[in-house]
Amino acid sequence: MTPKIIFFDIDETLYRKATNYLPDSTARAIRALKARGIIPAIATGRTLAALPDKVRALADAEGIELFVTINGQYNAFRGEPIACNPMGLTEIERFTALFRRHGWDYTFVGAEKMASSSSNPRVNEALAGIGPYIVDPDYYRHQPVYQFLLYIDPTEETTLNDSGELGREYHAMRWHPFSVDLLHAEGSKARGIRSVCAALGVPLAETMAFGDGLNDVEMFKTVGFGVAMGDAVPELRAVAQMQTGTVEEDGIYNALKKLEIIP
Fold it and tell me: What GO cellular component is one of the record's annotations (predicted)?
C-alpha cells in the first residue's frame, strides 16, 4: 500500500526532545515522499507556537504544509485552518475555578501562544523543551483556547477525576510526571486526522502514521497503517502494524525504505 498521507508525531518520533536531535535522514525521507506525491504531515499534541526550532526548520525547508495540532483541536493546511474545536467560555471558567480552589497551576493552549496562570519551577520544568509561554490568567477572554495543560501529580489527578467536573465530555491524559493534557473527550489526533482527510478527500485506509506515545493510540486505530518507534509505549506497540528503530536509529527513514514507500 502506497499511502497518500503520512502523519508524524514530533517528540520521540521525528525529534528527540531531551537532546534536541533530529536526524538528517528525516529530511531525506520527507523529500522522497514528496517526490512520490505523498503528503507528509505533522500530528502533535503541541500547538504551532511550540514547534521545536528544528522541526519548524524541517517543515519550512521541505514544505510540510499539513498540521494536526493540539491533539486534533486545531488543524491547518497551507496556512489555513481546516477544523478548529475551541473550548467554550463557560467550560473554561468552570475549570479555572476548580483549579484555583485546589491551587493547581495551568496553561491555556491557543493556536499561536501558551499562557500560564503563573510562572514557577514546576511549570518551567514541564514546559522545558516544549516552548515559550506568557503569564496571562485572563488569556481565554481574548483568544480561543483549545485545551489546558494542568500541573498535577498522579495523586492530584485522582482528586480531579473524583471532582465530577470532567463528566463524560472531558478527559485528562498524562504526558509528564506532573502534568496532564485536559481536553474534550472527542479531542484527539484521530479526530483531527479524520477532519483533514475528509477535507482533502483522502480515504483513511490510504493513510499511515508514525508515533511513540499514549496520545498516538487513537491515531493508530484510525489510519490505515501504524508504525511504532523503537521506544514506543507498550500500549502503542500493541496496536501498531510495524515497529521500527528509535529516532537515533533513523527509525522513520528505515521503515519507509523497508516498506518500499521510498527508494
Answer: cytosol
